[in-house]
Amino acid sequence: MSIRLLVLIPVAAAISLALSAVVDAVALPLFLDTTGTILATALAGPAVGIATGIVTSAVNTLRNPTFWPFVVVQIIVALYAWAAARAGLFRSLRTAIPAGLGLGVIASVTSTPISYFVFGCTTTGGIALTTALGKALGLPPLGACFFGSFVSDFGDKAVTFALVTSVLHALPRRAAARFPWALRAIGAA
Amino acid sequence: MTRRHPFTLLTIAGALPALAWTLPAPVGGAVTAATALTLAASRGLHRGLWPAVLTAAPFWLFLFILHDVPTTVAIGLRITTMVASFVWVAAALEPARLVEAMVAAGWSASVAYVFAATLSAVPLLKARARRIVDAQRCRGLAASGGVTARLRALRALALPLILSALHEVDERSLALETRGLVPGVRRTPLAPPHDSAAERVLRWGLVALCVAALTWRVA
Residue B189 in contact with residue B104, Cβ under 8 Å? Predict the structure, then answer.
């Protein structure tokens, strides 16, 4: 791994964690905590993306220990983003947003068993309340937990994919060309 | 306890939650939670016990809303163990000593760099994000209204932050190259933490205990 790709890992992980300040400013129910993982994968491939996801989870764990079991979700997000980059799905918002919605489904399917068996669906206040809503609607416990995860992940991953697509297109071509996957991800190579 | 080898501290912090989830509830969870809270309390009320209790409290509330009392107690004690263990290790473990221990154990300097660089970059980027929010508000950006307006505002705030961070990649990589950090290279630690035979036995003993508890529960 080159020095540039090594440096990209902490920068991308820090982007994921710093975006919470931006989300707070616009007061939207989003996490955007996989932005760095998806961006690093789209720029530099799956190894850098997976490493970014693991580092993001590890550093987030120091703030809130309940993040660590969800490291699996970060790895799956990186693998999905790699497949999306290979298919050139970051070429426009028209392709990126459906891809993000697909990731939302996969992420919620992956995080539901962790949330249910490890935390009893209480990972965040929002997920706990939507799970309670699912129970009130008559869903079984695991179904209510999936409902809670799905509501939080579905829109979040679509916005994240759209944001990463905007970044990739806003990068000057010369800067993008320094990363091995960037041009292919936006369908320019 | 802070003078213990960093790997010992991490092993204890990892073993307690593992045992909490493996041993039968609620007794197993009660023992591990009491141990973890005692360790957290050893770091002081404000650095250890209080953050652990404050972090664990919402989980108890949400568990109580979603589950019956026995399930709430069983899962709540496990989560409390996990939270208190990590709060304790975050307060007791000095990052610099961990890096030295990793380098002494033969880990690549790149791995140590990645963790240290992330920890130092997060507060810098958060501060920059707040400056961008202020600057865009001065230019008339409204971060309120409907969802579409807020998403537009999100793009206007996030894009400069991410692009500026990406532009730093070249500067940082040049700085590292001039300092001789080559991926895969091994470095000699300046002050490696002392790792006694007793601590190595303790670490392996905890791992063996976790494996034994898991085997007992599965069998």
Answer: yes
Rounded Cα–Cα distance for residues A72 and B143 (Å)? 33
Which amino acid makes up residue B76?
G
Q: Are B161 and B126 in contact (CB under 8 A)?
A: no
Cα-based angle B25, B28, B33 (whole degrees, multiple of 5): 110
CB of A120 within 8 Å of any CB in chain B?
A: yes
Give the Cα separation of B38 and B88 in Å (integer).
Answer: 9
Torsion, Cα of A176, A55, A11, A3 (10° steps)? -70
Burial of A163 (0-12, 13-18, 19+ CB in 10 A): buried
Residue A147 tokens, joined: 């409902």
ipTM of the complex: 0.88
Probe site for chain B from A8, A11, A127 (most B CB atoms < 10 A): A11
Cβ atoms of residues B96 and B51 within 8 Å:
no
| Structural tokens at position A8 | 């990209």
User: Quick one: tokens of A79?
Assistant: 């693998």
List phi, psi (to 5°) of A92: -155, 165
Q: Of B120, B27, B44, which Cα lies nearest the Cα of B87?
A: B44
Q: How far apart are CA A77 and CA A107, in angstroms?
A: 7
The model's pLDDT over A93-139, given as tens digits with 9 standing for 90+, comes to: 999 999 999 999 999 899 888 888 888 777 776 777 888 888 888 88
Chain CA centroid to CA A6, Å: 20
Contact criterion met (CB < 8 Å) for A3 and B62 = no
The angle formed by the CA atoms of residues B84, B90 and B93, to the nearest 5 degrees, is: 125
The answer to whether the Cβ–Cβ distance between A51 and B114 falls below 8 Å is yes
B117: chain A residues, CB-CB within 8 Å: 7, 10-11
pLDDT per residue over A11-57, tens digit each? 999 999 888 888 888 888 888 889 999 999 999 999 999 999 999 99
